[in-house]
Amino acid sequence: MSYEIPVTQARAELADLINRVVYGGERVVVTRHGKPLIALVSAADLERLEKEREVEEEQVISSVSAIRSMPSAPGERRRFGIAAEHRPEHRPEHRQEHRTPEGRGPETGERPPGHGR
């Protein structure tokens, strides 16, 4: 059950509002110009809400992890070509070696083929 109260009135009745929340099990919504501003809830309510949020976040993370590890569907390679199977983090031969801003390799200082001026 929620009880709404304007912020100006809530200032004057704070002790009473705290008692309503803690002992009466109410939730108090403090408003300004008729719009909800804050809510007063018991510490037990807050803890429950935070646990629910953690559970929801864990479900999202596990769902994303499950999707990420799924192999490509049959036919994706035909439809999208090699991009359907490209995973640079798993294919070390496609890692790009470090180059200087001029396009030179670190050991020889030579430009790679096709990078002439």
Defining key terms:
alpha+beta; 117 residues; three-stranded mixed β-sheet; elongated; single chain
Structure notes:
The chain is an alpha+beta fold. It is about 40% helix and about 15% strand. The chain has a three-stranded mixed sheet. A hairpin with a 2-residue loop joins strand 2 and strand 3. The longest helix has 26 residues. It is elongated and about 75 Å long. The model has no long low-confidence stretch (mean pLDDT about 75).
Strand composition percent: 5-15%
Low-confidence stretches: none
Summarize the main sheet.
3 strands, mixed
Q: Averaged pLDDT, please?
A: 75
Distance between the termini: 75 Å
Fraction in helix: 25-40%
Which strand order spans the largest sheet, edge to edge or round the barrel? 1-2-3
- Any idea what the radius of gyration is? 30 Å
Rough outline: elongated
Q: Helix count?
A: 4
- Count the E strands: 3
Order of secondary-structure elements: EHHEEHH
- Helix-strand makeup class: alpha+beta
